[in-house]
Q: What sequence folds into this?
């Protein structure tokens, strides 16, 4: 019978995506037997995580908080093309595109996809913020990089309709990412080709 402390830690760790009870138990036991400094450093980093990191106030990417403001490295990079804006569903997708090294513009994270089955409608997406970003930055092209799933395609069509009146070119990443798949798991070559072969919606 494990101690209540171990059971609590296993329960907490097993709430992480892709971590079951057995894996969580292995993590706890490993941390107990690993070098003490490592466990303490990991604990300190986790304890300060929400105080030091937050969503970027411009795009929604992960950003370090300085003086009460959170602006990510991409938005803070003056060498980026501010007229090119890539719209993604999640931060995971942004990171996958960044790994490919093919995107020299900036990003906007929706945070979710249009999904009538889950009760997520157009009013639940940050469309007003997206329109304001396009106008304020003088964006000329919006790349829609939502996943090639039913919800991703529905969101892409919604964006085409909602942004069409702003006078920007609305393009869609090309095929190459498997249908029904997540951008998070696409390899850099596939992601690079998908961006290079984007088409007007």
A:
């Amino acid at each position: 019978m494990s101690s209540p402390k171990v059971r609590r830690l296993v329960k907490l760790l097993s709430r992480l995506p892709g971590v079951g009870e057995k894996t969580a138990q292995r993590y706890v036991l490993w941390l107990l037997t690993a070098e003490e400094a490592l466990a303490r450093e990991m604990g300190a980093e986790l304890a300060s995580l929400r105080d030091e990191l937050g969503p970027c106030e411009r795009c929604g990417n992960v950003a370090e908080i300085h003086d009460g403001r959170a602006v990510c490295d991409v938005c803070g990079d003056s060498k980026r093309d501010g007229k090119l804006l890539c719209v993604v569903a999640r931060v995971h997708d942004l990171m996958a595109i960044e790994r490919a090294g093919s995107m020299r513009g900036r990003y906007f994270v929706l945070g979710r996809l249009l999904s009538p089955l889950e009760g997520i409608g157009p009013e639940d997406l940050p469309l007003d913020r997206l329109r304001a970003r396009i106008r304020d930055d003088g964006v000329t092209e919006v790349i829609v990089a939502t996943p090639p799933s039913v919800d991703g395609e529905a969101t892409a069509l919604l964006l085409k309709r909602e942004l069409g009146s702003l006078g920007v070119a609305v393009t869609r990443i090309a095929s190459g990412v498997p249908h029904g798949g997540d951008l998070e798991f696409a390899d850099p070559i596939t992601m690079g080709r998908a961006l290079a072969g984007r088409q007007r919606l």
